[in-house]
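ok trying again, last paste got cut off:
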Amino acid sequence: MALHQHDEPTMNIVVTGDFLECIGKDERTYRRGTAAFCPAARPHSQQFGAAGLQQIIFKPADSWLDYLADCKVNLDAAPHASSPAFCDLGDKLLRELHQDDGFSAVACEGVMLEIIAAFGRKRAAAKIGGQAPAWLRAAREFMHENAFAPLTMAQIAGEAGRHEIHLAREFRRFFGIPVGAYLRRLRVEQAARLLMKPHTSISDIAQRCGFASHSHLCREFKAHFAIAPSEYRLRSR
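nice, full thing came through this time. structure:
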């Protein structure tokens, strides 16, 4: 998209794909799990990635912007933040948009408020705590590398060289999601990718992604995507 601007301030949250944005003198790459604020009349351009992009853009209410300003978020700087929490909130908002019933408008507003709150919290944490410490990033990398094997909090904490309680507290503070929920999200998203392959059974996918059984996968998958794996596979086709 060529250089353009919006008449009103906007908030966007990336659901799938990625893009490069040029705003002012900054170049930023936004991926799934990124939320960004764009002030009104701020020229910017975008170059979308090869996989395309799906994002939700909405106009924040004035009271929401006042809240962010009270949280010392510098809105004039077009702030952005990335967090696993935004993955879940983006998926949740997309589901409500597709629901489109008598309750979806209220539900959507509730999710957008959650996005605003998470955005303010993430920006505040960045000011206070800065980047996650190396040991915590290493623990998260260990989870990515072993996401589909049986993992315990003790194993992850041992890899990080920290006590389990300390790991749990700091992981949630920096990444905005509990350790267990993050691990479940890694497994469910891998299952969603494997469901795109038509000749792989759901039971086999459950085993490959670290779930105890077919029913265990179905339960976690439905909690995350609000649909059963079989329905997800059908829609993906």
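cool. The mean pLDDT is 87. DSSP finds ten helices and five strands in the chain.
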